[in-house]
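so i finally got all the pieces together for this one. its two components total, 375 residues if u count the protein bits. some of the lines might not be protein, just check the labels. i wanna see the whole assembly predicted at once instead of chain by chain like last time, that was a mess tbh
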Amino acid sequence: MSKLFVDQVDPKTATTLTLGTSGDTVSIPTGVGLTATDEVKTNKISPASGTAFTLGDSGDTFTVPSGVTFANSGTATGFGDTSYYVKITNVNGTNSVGDISINDCFSTTYRTYLVTFQFENDRGGNQIWMRFQADDDSTFDSNYRYACHQTNDGGTESTRVSTGDTKWIMTGGTGGGNSSIFGGCFGFMYVHNPYTIATGEAGAGNIYRCGWNAQYNEYDDSGHVVNSVATGMLEQNSYNVAGLRFLPSANYVEKRNVTVWGLKEY
Amino acid sequence: MTKRQIWSRETGIIGREMTVEEQAEFDARQTAWNSDAEKLKRIKEIRLKKLKETDWWVYRGNMTSEQSSWRQSLRDIPTTFSASDYDALLEMEGDIPNRKLKHSIWSKP
């Protein structure tokens, strides 16, 4: 092996200078810096030793030009807020149906779900009910404990409560003191912990795992808009809650638009 | 058969007719909701709210005879009216937002 002392290497002809041949390794020893002021093209950058690779120093700025895509298949940390909503499904329609089932919208992937909804029955005076569904798509038909407070725009307040209903009565009845009539019902609810909480994860903080909070509106028989604020628990921990079913107290639901979102919290 | 709308991860949104068992449950729900007992329950619920709305008349201490009679007529609904009247008591009229219960018993004096 011989050592070559030279201040510059240039192409012998044209403008391309080649170092080595396929299979060769060009080593730059520890302590030797490599400065390339202009573009460096390579297909892969890896750590020279160990598993850590550092880009730049504190204060440096790396610019990602417009049109560039970062395709991340691994774990990205430190990029700011990584909590966001993930749309799971939307169910909508206008034909008359006896119920709307959203079978397996819940899973172990998320702990909290947002459900936005709009419903209209095919006639006034009927109620909209909600039941949770199990893994086999059957409904939970008991153990709904809930409290709903209603206020209409005339200032009249009322409540709808149960310590053990066969369903959650969402709308209808006597919201705000008058009979509610379904001029439109729209709102949202959060569903918490439908699935068993894995060992090591934070607990639900309630005796019963799965609960919900909701806020929505409807019209009453005096033309008042009624605001309903409700919360409830499904008082059982034996089975996972996999889905939702919305159903009218009688007859049919016509207009509906339901979207389920998973909330990535962690 | 009654239609259902169903979403699942495997099928997406589908509409299908109820099975025999599902239709039976649906029919039972109609029967229960349209039973005399359930109708009377809803009538009493409306009555309670109407009375609560006008409790301030009582607290004020100078109810008119019309107001007093109207509140009494609400209390008397279960004896004044029979099951054949329940649909009329629950009937609505008008268009939103002016839709309201049609029966005159609900109109405040």
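Residues 36-109 of chain B form one domain.
Chain B has two domains: 1-33, 36-109.
anyway lmk what u think
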